[in-house]
Amino acid sequence: MTQVNVDLLLGRRVLSRDGRRLGHVEAIHVIRDADAWVISEFHMGSDALLERLAVGLLPRLLREAMRHRRRSRSHRIAWHQIDIADPRHPRLLCDETELDRFS
Amino acid sequence: MLRHGCLQTEPDGMKKIFEICLGVVTSVGGFLEMGSLSTAAQGGAAFRLQLVWPIVVGTLCIIFLTEMAGRFAAVSQHTIAAGIRDRFGIKFFLLPFVAVLIVNTLVLSAEIGGVSVALEMATGLKHPWWALPVALLAWFTLWRGTFGLIEKGVSLLGLVTLSFVAAAVTLKPDWHQVAAGVLPSVPHHDPANYWFIVVSILGASITPSLFLFYSSGAVEDHWDAGYLGANRAIATLGMAFGGCISVAVLVAAAYVFPAHGITHVDDYHQLPLLLVAVFGFWGFVLFVASLAFACFGAILQIALEQAYLVAQGFGWNWGENRKPRDDPGFCLVYTCALAISAIPIAAGVDPLKLTVFSMALTAVSLPLTVVPFLVLMNDERYVGRHGNGVISNTVVVAIIVLAFVLAIVALPLQVLGGA
Amino acid sequence: MDIVRDVLDKQVVDRHSVRMGRVDGIVAELRPGRPPEVIAIEIGSMAIARRVGERTARWVARLAARIGGARRAEPYRIAWSRIRLMDVDIEVDIDMNDTPIDDWQRWLREHVIERLPRWLQ
Fold it and tell me: What ipTM was predicted for this assembly?
């Protein structure tokens, strides 16, 4: 049973099964499972550090619109759909099309 | 993240007014230091009353930034440095962290140089000899003092800098021209030098160390959401009146230096003339006292800010009110900061040149601290419904962009032009 | 809960509300056929160095080992089960004096501060 530093996943490029660059890991969601906390899914978004910063500076209304636009381009990756054994180089285990988008 | 359920008793009205007055007076006394003094003096000598506008623009920006810093600390109960690490993670935090550490080290050297120069003028003993004793005295004050003593006591001593205001008024300047100088203008001669001085004045007014320290101070003084009004008053009035002292230095310089044939202030021995020309011997005494107290206050503030930055960024125990044995790491940082910054002055680096250079460098580094700070000020998770409005964001972003653009243009020009 | 937003880089305090450091790393255990379980948080310069880069991590590890011995080359871990509260700060059910996190500050206290003359302490 390997132990990995999941903090190293943050901001890393996610590669598809055939090595194409998809997006960056933005969030790691955990849920409670009896006594333990387990990782349920990862959120992958587009790169754009500038975009992330700019969103923070915009007035509230525009910010909501921007956030909505970005979320529609983000994907949710369930725990079983990604290989994080090497946290610096996460790879998808499934096909891109199987990933859920944000509604 | 908001602290829900913190009990706020409605503060006593008189107590609040007293705190506001004390806060304003402290800000005024602590405003002027080697950077603002040198750059305003140079500006006045070289371009007379034309350069009032960078002081006004810089002061406006720092008013917004300090008010935001106080609001942020009071509402989120975080300091800005802690907030940046919290929100952006370690990798992004390291950028402003390293930049501020470096810039602070240079500015701290400049302030140690300021006190050393004041002591040289008072005693005749050359300033490099004073570097280590000054650093040692500052260290001892931080080691034994409490935050209240440092913030209030030393800043009250800094009120002697009001002598510059007295000097400016005594010189009976053409107030119409002073008012005209508030509007930005282009230089009639020596553009490279003009824009370089604009950049250094902006850097001297908008020091990141100032608003970072202000947020740490708010946490040290246990501010909460009940202090928002007081914060607004202190930040606005304190910084505005403080800015007036800088303008006074510029006005005095504009009248005194050209009258004595000086258009380039490049030797710190020229500085006392600002007050000597107006008040004679007592002007000299007032100048030495102003320089010494103002810069000493800045030394304490910057050394503490270095320690706050490291301790808050890495989650150590921190606090000037604690005994050193309770937070040895925190104390180690300010000890090292003072020791390292004393070295250039002890080695004989010219304090005036170092000051002006570090002010320009400050202007270049501004976006690295201000942009993340602005993001924090717009993040509901930290400031709740007390976030920034469009005006605050726009004004600060505009001024920072201005400072940065001018800096990257003016710095190489000045260096190439042969300062 | 998003552990990036709500746990990573947050301030850690011990059971007496003493600041211990920040969450510099989070460790998960990979189990075949089951979701990875988060088992610990890490505190220390080693964890930070690792996040900055692999070369930095190796350099800091060598430095730490030379100063404090081989055990220093690994960051300090706190089991996830020890976390009591995750609000503004992460509260853990540990006494900081029982951990090696503060060792260097303790060293400073014993070997530097205590050796100063009484009036300076």
Answer: 0.91
